[in-house]
Amino acid sequence: MGKRIAASMIVCAAGWLTVASVPASASTHPHPKVPRAALACVYQVGHVRPSSYLNVRLNPSLRSHRIGKLKVADGFFAGACQPVRNWVAVKSSCGKPGWASAKYLVKLNK
Q1: Neighbour order of strands in the sheet with 66-71
Q2: CA distance 99 to 91
Q3: Strand-pair partners of 91
Q4: 20 CB neighbour count, 10 Å cutoff
C-alpha cells in the first residue's frame, strides 16, 4: 500500500513553498505489471508433496503478495506456454490470475 503526502503551504523567509501530493493512483510497488500471455498450455503441480500446494503470486516474484494456491489434488490447469523470469502465468484454484514458480510446474503439452 502506498503512502500519500497531504498537500500543504509552508511559509518561509523567501516566500511560499508548495508541497504537492502524490496522486492516489501512483504505485509504490517495486514490481511493474508484467504482461500476461494466453493460458494455452496444460500443467500440473510437481516436485512437491502430494498433500502440499504451490503459492500463486500477484507478480512474478517471491516478494509479491500471495493471492491463491495450486494444489496437487487440483489435477491439471492452464498456464502460459512461455515462462517469464522462471514464473508461469496461471489461474489459482479459486480462479484468480497470478504467477507460479516454473520450478514446481510440469508442462504436459508443448
Answers
A1: 66-71, 53-57, 97-101, 87-91, 76-79, 41-45, 105-107
A2: 8
A3: 97
A4: 8
**C-alpha to C-alpha distance for 21 and 4, rounded to whole angstroms:** 7
pLDDT for residue 82 is more than 90: yes
pLDDT of residue 24: 46
Task: List beta partners, residue 6.
Answer: none
Q: Which domains does the chain have, with CATH numbers?
A: 41-107 (2.30.30.40)
The owner of cell 508541497 is 19
pLDDT at 33: 60
**How far apart are the C-alpha atoms of 50 and 2, rounded to whole Å?**
38
pLDDT for res 27: 42
Give dist(CA 91, CA 105) in Å, integer.
Answer: 13
